[in-house]
Amino acid sequence: MTTNEDAFMTTALMTAKETDGTREPGPAEERQDDDAWLTECAAPGRHWFGLSGTLQALETLLTIARWAALAWTAQAVLDRAVAQETWGLVAFAVASVPAVGAGWTAGTLAERGARAVARGLRQRLTGALLPTAGRISETGPAEAAWAMVDLTDDVADFHAQTVPLRRSAPLSMLAVLAVTAAVHWPAAIVLVLTTALLPLNMRLAGLFAQHGADLQSSATRHLNAVVLDSFRGMRTLRELGAVGRRGRTLTSAAEQLNKATMSVLRRAFLSGMIMDIVITFSIAVNATYIGLSLLGYVRVPHAPRLDLFTGLLVLLVCPMYFAPMRARASAFHQRERARAAADAIRGIVEDTPAEVIRAARPQLTEPVGVSLTAVRFRYGGADHDTIGADAEFAPGTWTAITGTSGSGKSTLLSLIAGLRRPSAGAVRWQTSSVRQEPALGGCAWVGQQTVLLDATVRDNIRLGRPDATETQIRRAVDAAGLSAVLEGLPEGLNTRLGEGGWGVSTGEARRIAIARAFLRGARLWLLDEPTAHLDADSEREVVEALRRATDGCTVVVATHSFPLAAAADTVLVIDDGLLHDAKPANAR
Predict the structure, then answer these.
(1) Domains in the chain, please, with CATH?
(2) Distances (CA, A) of 171 to 104, 110, 174, 181
(3) Which end of the chain, C or N, has fewer beta carbons within 10 A?
(4) Full-model pTM
(5) Looking only at Cα atoms, what is the longest distance across the chain?
(6) 72-126: per-residue pLDDT in tens?
(7) CA nearest 504: which of 448, 560, 453, 446?
(8) Beta strands of 512-553 (E only): which ranges?
């Protein structure tokens, strides 16, 4: 195809998209959409922010009264009017107390609003990051922690600064301008003329901040990932003798973040310096004019007489006129940082389906069968299905799913559990009287990595059912074959395990996980490589424990282990993403 034909086809496609309404949003539209989402995040704290803005405006009015009292006192001192001096000092003290109180209360309310915004974002992130949210894509631990801890605060701090300012800034500036114009209008004209120079500087500040915030965000994300991966893989790094090399990688990532941060600071300093020059120029012009007028060198036609009270009051309130502008300029830098944070949070939150089956205590008292009907699953961005399955798992049976590493066994289990939603087709749980979609929390899950908390054995088992009685815990211990293990522990069930399960072997930790699952009372068990990394004896003990604990339950197990597959009633094989028909285990 020639260049002209290419151009013609491109134009035709763009026109067709615009005609049928499917035109892709441009950068400006995407930015507006991001701004709208960022604004929406302020909703939980909007009430507090509104009160804070009102009090900020009140603080400005009280501060004007305060400076007026001070200027009045200075004029009284010059005129040697003792009585007016006293009343001026009293008025200054009376205005100072509520002014300070209003400022402190405004800051407190803004902080409360920021906490409300951060809490709301963290609740949304928690719902999106937990497996029960039914997300299709995965978020790395480093990015999740970064979003939960840092990014929410970036958004909350931005709103705490800017939302009250939107209410208070116009009122405060108008009040200062009105007072200045009332006492000496030429000074007010200088303020108005100088104001016209500020929007351009604020726009430049925003452009500077945008690029710097993107660089800093990228460097922070990279450093978080390097730190987390380094700690998680420290044992492996030590065994490979790669700790020093990893340390250099960590240093490099930290230096990149340092450079990005310094770049942001330089940009902020430059734009702040320009802002300060404009403000200083305005105040200097007014100060020079007032000084020359008081000395009698300058007189503006039709301007009111300038005395010490008028001149001093104008000089005291002029900086107050520019304070909201200075705060808005500072907010431009924070806005770009908040926009980048909101974009990352939004990417996590909006990847969660709008409707999710709510988690519930297991209510099914019969063994649960599983039906997979034309199920297809594809990860976001992939060009092919990871899983394609049509199968029936009969109630009360053991089904083993085998296949090479990465073939999709764990993904299939997550679809059965309801942790993910299929891209096509349907997954159903069924008993003799019920047929339903997977209910989150309604099945028991035992994985190849057992999560044990820094707590007692009892507390780790009771994670499956916090309100379990001692009798129920003992029954779970017996079902998982933990009795002999507990006898070897110094305090039995009250033995405290170290973080990550320090104090018990891998096989013993696996049996604690089985006891925990048994305690839930679920009639559907999903096992993801439950005997991985175990020696032959430990594997045999875990298989026996599973057989006891799942008596009468439906079990679907993903495994590479031949002994575990041989214990199943049926074996399914995933090959090239497709789940093959069932065949007897003894036929293997």
Answers:
(1) 27-349 (1.20.1560.10), 369-587 (3.40.50.300)
(2) 19, 18, 5, 15
(3) N
(4) 0.63
(5) 113
(6) 998 888 888 888 888 989 999 999 999 999 999 999 999 999 999 999 998 888 8
(7) 453
(8) 524-528
